[in-house]
Design a protein that fits this description.
The protein is α/β, with parallel strands linked by helices. It has helices spanning 3-22, 38-53, 60-72, 74-79, 94-113, 172-180, 209-220, 226-248, 266-275, 331-339, 360-363, 365-370, 383-400, and strands spanning 130-136, 141-148, 157-161, 184-190, 197-198, 204-205, 259-264, 287-293, 307-317, 341-349, 416-421. The longest helix is centred in the middle third of the chain and has 23 residues, at 226-248.
Length: 429
């Protein structure tokens, strides 16, 4: 769905509001009774934007204006049903008209200013994923796996736990870019938990606003709470089931290809916890390392000095460089890096906000505008490409350590902050 198709309903909303606002000043419009329906049409189109295009914060201001304007014009709407409605005389109120137009312009600016470069991640020439449904008969949970490329033991595999905010639909560019770089990529969405959810029939479902605000809250949270801990527990259960399923797709454990595990938010935290336990991940020698993206490690009962046998890269927002001790949502991550033992790395694109490691700079630029990285940092020209580059470069480094030929590194456009310990020869550029 291209840029023009998104603008059509937005322009119609403004048109259906502007004409009734101007009606009292243009005598030739007084007798057109159907104009009383225009605000209602604008409201219907505005409401329809959300199920059609998903949660679009930039459209909320004009939605509020449209709703209020429709309420104020209900009298005109009902009057249009009367036989002599076309003979109505309107009082010319220049001040009210100018004020209404000015207010309409103000609420319309965000809608157009933050129009996405692409509404849907599939609007451009990217790798098309294969979607497969699998079910956990023990728990009754249904998963829709998106597989980019073919699964066989010759192709290095990256398994990505999706973001809590946006689901696997918000990382299509990331997965597609990694596939084009030579990796097989698998991610998933869980029915009833992740939103939006795309089924194997390519039907997209959106969850309630309740899930939206719950996941949004964890992005803004500075202190651990029960919701964040519960989300990590949910993701941990998903990972344990899906990794077991994944291994079973190969003849035996020895035929499992080199595997890099990446996770956003609670998923990255859960991967870190599992790697420190004598459980699922350590028993597979083919697991090379973990990338925890914007993960907060909410389960603070975890010993910050625990040992991590696998290399772990924490990829976080550039705002970690500005925040003070004690009021820092990344405090647990920083403690883990400082006091934990093992093979650890910390990286941040200085200009990247907490949602910039997903497709949102393309599909929801409003998030990048309000949720920024380090103050006054040089803006990356393409943060989505930078994210692909960081994941690719880290995975390449891990593969080279087990004997693969050296990979040419992706160029990172944004300024990159890096720290590491216990990882010999580590580099991301």
């Amino acid at each position: 769905m291209g840029l023009l198709e998104i603008w059509i309903p937005e322009v119609l909303i403004v048109f259906f509001l502007l004409v009734p606002i101007l009606r009292p000043l243009i005598k030739g419009l007084w007798h057109i009774d159907s104009l009383a329906w225009f605000p209602l049409l604008a409201l219907g189109i505005n409401i329809g934007l959300f199920p059609a295009y998903g949660i679009r914060p930039e459209c909320i201001p004009i939605l509020g204006f449209t709703f209020l304007y429709t309420l104020f014009n209900l009298r005109s709407f009902f009057s249009s049903f009367k036989s002599k409605a076309g003979n109505a005389v309107y009082e010319r109120n220049i001040f009210l008209t100018v004020f209404s137009i000015l207010f309409l312009v103000i609420v319309s600016i965000p809608m157009f200013a933050f129009t996405p470069k692409y509404f849907d991640s599939h609007d451009v020439d990217t790798v098309t994923e294969k979607i497969t449904k699998i079910s956990d008969t023990r728990t009754g949970k249904n998963y829709f796996l998106s597989v980019y490329g073919e699964m066989h033991n010759e192709n290095p595999l990256i398994f990505i736990v999706p973001p809590d905010f946006g689901s696997s639909a918000s990382i299509h560019y990331i997965c597609s870019g990694l596939r084009e770089s030579g990796f097989t990529v698998i991610t998933y969405s869980r029915e009833g938990y992740d939103s939006p959810l795309t089924t194997e029939n390519r039907i997209k479902h959106f969850s309630s606003f309740g899930n939206f605000f719950t996941h949004w809250k964890t992005i803004r949270q500075t202190d651990p709470d029960i919701q964040g801990i519960d989300m990590e527990s949910e993701r941990k259960a998903d990972i344990e089931f899906l990794l077991t399923w994944l291994v079973n797709q190969f003849d035996d454990e020895d035929s499992l290809p080199p595997l890099i595990l990446a996770g956003y938010g609670a998923g990255g935290s859960a991967l870190t916890y599992i790697a420190e336990e004598d459980g699922l991940i350590p028993v597979y020698d083919n697991v090379l390392g973990i990338i925890a993206i914007e993960s907060r490690l909410w389960t603070v009962a975890l010993d910050s000095q625990s040992y991590t046998s696998l290399p772990v890269l924490f990829l976080v927002s550039g705002r970690i460089l500005d925040l003070q001790e004690g009021n820092n949502p990344y405090q647990t991550v920083m403690n883990k890096f400082r006091f934990g033992s093992g093979h650890l790395a910390l990286a941040a694109i200085e200009s990247a906000g907490p949602l910039d490691y997903q497709d949102f700079p393309y599909t929801h630029p409003v998030y990048s505008f309000f949720l920024t990285g380090k103050k006054d940092a040089k803006k990356s020209e393409n943060p989505v490409s930078d994210t692909i580059g960081i994941i690719f470069n880290f995975a390449s480094f891990l593969l080279e350590n087990i004997g693969y030929d050296e990979f040419p590194r992706h160029v990172i456009d944004g300024d990159l902050y890096i720290e590491s310990k216990g990882i010999s020869g580590f580099r991301l550029k």
